[in-house]
Design the sequence.
């Protein structure tokens, strides 16, 4: 598992639940997006973005997301979900996600999401706060690229 997730500074472990499977006897596609959301929030916690939002009113919002399914997941299994920022932009950043199956020992899904920063009080996109940019750069190190 460790080798599959070595480039993802934030990871969480999630047991696959029986009720997450669909009529086709594998994990429903919607569940992967819930996994992405859970690790995205863990990433936000790691960079303390919610504290910035509380003091400035500027915070993140998901602008778009997608998923590539590699291996069908079924119960029972446990997955480790990883997140990383892959690129910084003036008004946000790109995130990449990976879902690694413990049972299969391989990547079950990969995804990405574009995060933009908005002024929740005034509405509209605003620049990524410098403190958030600095925290992402500190967490990601040399893996990060500018866009």
Sequence:
């Amino acid at each position: 598992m460790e080798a599959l997730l070595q480039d993802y500074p934030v990871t969480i472990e999630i047991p696959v639940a029986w009720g997450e499977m669909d009529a086709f006897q594998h994990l429903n596609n919607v569940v992967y997006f819930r996994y992405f959301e859970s690790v995205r929030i863990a990433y936000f916690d790691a960079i303390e973005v919610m504290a910035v939002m509380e003091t400035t009113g500027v915070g993140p919002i998901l602008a778009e997301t997608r998923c590539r399914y590699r291996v069908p997941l079924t119960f029972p299994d446990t997955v480790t979900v990883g997140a990383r920022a892959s690129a910084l932009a003036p008004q946000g950043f790109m995130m990449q996600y990976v879902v690694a199956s413990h049972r299969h020992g391989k990547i079950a899904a990969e995804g990405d999401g574009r995060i933009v920063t908005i002024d929740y009080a005034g509405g509209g996109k605003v620049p990524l706060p410098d403190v958030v940019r600095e925290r992402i750069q500190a967490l990601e190190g040399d893996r990060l690229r500018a866009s």
